[in-house]
Amino acid sequence: MNEFLHMGGYASYVWSSYAIALVVLLANLVAPLRARRKLLTRLAQREKRAQRMKR
């Protein structure tokens, strides 16, 4: 197991590549969710404003 984790002397490159890939994948997952929440909040505020203007 130790030899596998050491990866023939290239462990720092391999594991850092895996870590960077994981961070990018997580960012690709989280960013659209945050943008959607922000958009829905803005739309709700706009709708409230439109309702107040009708009165």
List keywords for this structure.
2 helices, rod-shaped, mainly alpha, 89% helix, 55 residues
Q: How would you portray this structure in words?
A:
This protein has 55 residues and is mainly alpha-helical. It has one domain (2-54). The protein is 89% helix and 0% strand. It has helices at 2-6, 11-54.
Write the layout of secondary structure elements.
Elements: H1 2-6, H2 11-54
Average pLDDT confidence is 95
Q: Beta-sheet strand percentage?
A: under 5%
Number of domains: 1
Alpha-beta content class:
mainly alpha
Total beta strand runs: 0
Query: What is the CA-based Rg, rounded?
Result: 23 Å
Low-confidence stretches: none
Shape descriptor? rod-shaped
Largest sheet: none
Q: Count the helices. How many?
A: 2
Secondary-structure element order, N to C: HH
Describe the structure in brief:
The chain has 2 helices and no strands.
